[in-house]
Amino acid sequence: MAQKVLVEMLDDIDGTPATRTIPFSLDGVTYEIDLSEDNAAALRDGLARYISAGRRTGGRKVRVAAGQSTTSSTDRERNQQIRAWANANGYEVSERGRLSSEVIAAYDEAQATATEAPAPRKRSPRKKVAAAKK
Q1: From 3.40.50.720, 3.60.10.10, 2.70.170.10, 3.30.60.230, which CATH number describes the 7-58 domain?
Q2: Which residues form a coiled coil (predicted)?
Q3: To bridge 9 with a disulfide, which of 18, 25, 27, 31 should be the other Cys (CB 3.0-4.6 Å)?
């Protein structure tokens, strides 16, 4: 038996169909609200005075699910490898913090040249020698 399940997003203010989920924060708490275009515009208009007077503390718009970090374990492992390589190759890097783009580029270049395998040599075709029967 086949089923078709439809999920309808409703505006959290008036119950009309919502078109978007808008995240916002206040007093260190992050919220999300589902709103229609009209209510989303009203929210932005209502906050415009405070936004224009406030200071932006975030650099980019990034949505992170609750409980997740923006840095993955593979990023941390890569950064550890870069730090070890940089220390072994005369670069000064701290144990923590952001790596410079210069160090990352040098590491990537070193890895690319280290993994480039020489082109395989063409071998001349082997001649098949028929075994002599006695």
Answers
A1: 3.30.60.230
A2: none
A3: 18
